[in-house]
Amino acid sequence: MSDVDHTDVSVSVKGRHFNQTLGWEFCSGQDGAEFLPCIDRTASNYTYTIPLSRFMPDESILLQFQ
Questions:
Q1: How far apart are the first and last CA of the chain?
Q2: In Å, how far from its chain's centre is CA 25?
Q3: Within 10 A of 10 (CB to CB), how many other CB atoms are there?
Q4: What φ, ψ does residue 25 adopt, rounded to 5°?
Q5: pTM of the full structure
Q6: How far apart are CA 27 and CA 5, in angstroms?
Q7: In angstroms, rounded to a whole number, what is the distance separating the alpha carbons of residues 12 and 66?
Q8: Three-state SS across 1-61?
Q9: Mean per-residue pLDDT for 11-29?
Q10: Cβ atoms within 10 A of the Cβ of 17, count?
């Protein structure tokens, strides 16, 4: 399954020590009506749950829409 949506947009969270593309596994609202379009990559809006830790070695992160 592709991490690029129907408009060819992908979202990544990047740090000095990591680079993670946000795919369907990060979709929030698993009980809501927007969950299936998020998984199918056909939604107009995406809501993600991004796990972060205060123990990450990176001082800053970049949210990149590409």
A1: 18
A2: 8
A3: 15
A4: -70, -15
A5: 0.72
A6: 13
A7: 8
A8: CCCCCCCCCCEEEECCCCEEEECHHHECCCCCCCHHHHHHCCCCCCCECCCCCCCCCCCCC
A9: 89
A10: 8
